[in-house]
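INTERNAL AUDIT FORM
Audit reference: QA-55
Scope: verify that the stored structure record matches its stored sequence.
Auditor: D.O.
Record contents follow.
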Amino acid sequence: MITGGDPFQRPDLTELIACGKEAGVRVAVSPSGTPTLTPERLREVRDAGAVGLSLSLDGSTAELHDGFRGVPGVYRWTLDAWDAARAMGMKVQINTTVARHSLHDPPDIVRLVRDHGAMVWSAFFLVPTGRGRQLGVLTLAETEDVLNFGTTWA
């Protein structure tokens, strides 16, 4: 997995992917939702040998996701890239941070994952370090409720 900020900012991204493929490593990329996340760039990384894409989706609406990420437009860029990658035959993993902003949102995210298609959906609980201390960590009781409720989401 090539990750860390926005790997699409690396001018040598396709070379790194091709090198991994040549070495027999299955390579995936985990870009941020930015204007660089275009169908053309996705096609380039797929053609270089990337087999998958890992995207963060921290809310089922633009208001929730963009608010959590602090950048307007991230939700749309993420959904567009998700759909483009799937149309190209790439495997997609969706990662969701569950925090105060999205306490009741996971069922709607599950519906998006079902409707758009993903190989894997991973839910993470916010770890209150750094910027995360201001982002609404859940109480232990809320965390347990989310975990117990998860059996009825689909």
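Auditor finding: record pair retrieved intact. The two ends are 28 Å apart (CA to CA).
Action required: none
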